[in-house]
Write a structure and sequence with these properties.
6 helices, about 30% strand, binds 4'-deoxy-4'-aminopyridoxal-5'-phosphate
Length: about 280
């Protein structure tokens, strides 16, 4: 049965509760992680929890638990949950001590939950639509802070994409260049070179960084640059990366006045395989 740890106490998920006046429920500002468990082992646990604590620092949280305490708590939740493959969601949030936008009385809480994960996107043939919502400027919200505040836009963009019959939405950044999807980073392939946006207004995902490392070890050139939506039909391949999604191949992007079609999956599927091998080697 799935378990949730809250501030040092373990509950069955059904019994894990928060107060109706929880600050982060009303005003967002919770910071969180998404960690995938394979073979009862959390993949890149330390990297995810380090990002969690960095996100918390960016929003002024004082967290009472250390990195190693959070690691131990995560491992306990995985063990008690008993699923060999699952998704772990650590969340740091402000409590219910005040209804104000900020009050020094507000306590910091830490929750770690494990749930069975339904498949995120198909291995290939995923379609995207360009969203009219954009990722905000770095001085509107710190882009490397994985906080609930950023996900309101993603929720609406994904709802619109699903209603349009596609798998996800591709968002542009505030300057008008391609940024990322609602839950994944994006890569394109042209003449066997990888082209990916500069993560200056969106999350520089852990999977993205791993894929860049794998590509370099395979001597594939990786170019980080501004990408205009109008260039998308000229690329050979497109794929998405993220912890839950892993590496997912895209076959179509719907633009305002055109469609980009990708019928090749050569480089994307090779990286998909290498990523899987890495998981298998680290989570034995
Ligand atoms: N961008 C967004 C908006 C995401 O939610 C995610 C998933 N965490 C990513 C990118 C990919 O990040 P990661 O590879 O660290 O999971």
């Amino acid at each position: 049965m799935s378990h949730t740890w809250i501030n040092g106490q373990l509950f069955h998920n059904e019994q894990a509760q928060v107060h109706a006046l929880t600050h982060s429920l009303h005003y967002s500002g919770a910071v969180f992680e998404g960690i995938k468990v394979y073979n009862k082992k959390a993949f890149r646990l330390e990297q995810h929890l380090t990002r969690l604590l960095d996100s918390a620092k960016l929003l002024g949280y004082e967290v009472a638990f250390s990195l190693s305490e959070l690691q131990a708590a995560t491992e306990l939740v995985i063990k008690e949950t008993g699923l060999s493959e699952c998704y772990v969601r650590p969340l740091i949030y402000r409590g219910h001590e005040s209804i104000g936008i900020y009050d020094s009385k507000l306590k910091t809480n830490v929750m770690i939950s494990a749930v069975a994960l339904s498949k995120v996107l198909k291995p290939q043939d995923n379609s995207l639509i360009i969203s009219s919502w954009v990722r905000p400027a770095p001085n509107a919200f710190p882009p490397q802070c994985k906080a609930s505040s950023g996900y309101g836009i993603g929720t609406v963009a994904l709802k619109n994409a699903m209603e349009a019959g596609v798998d996800d939405a591709l968002l542009l950044g505030w300057q008008g260049y391609v940024a990322e999807t609602t839950r994944c980073n994006v890569f394109f392939v042209k003449d066997k070179k990888l082209i990916t946006p500069i993560p200056d207004c969106f999350l520089n995902g852990i999977t993205r960084q791993i894929i860049i490392g794998i590509a370099s070890s395979l001597e594939l050139e990786v170019i980080e640059r501004n990408i205009n939506a109008s260039e998308l039909p000229t690329f050979d391949e497109c794929f998405l990366t993220g912890t839950a999604a892993e590496v997912k191949l895209v076959n179509k992007i719907i633009l305002d006045n055109a469609e980009a079609h990708y019928s090749q999956y050569t480089v994307g599927s090779m990286l998909q395989e290498h990523y899987r091998k890495l998981i298998n080697s680290e989570c034995q």
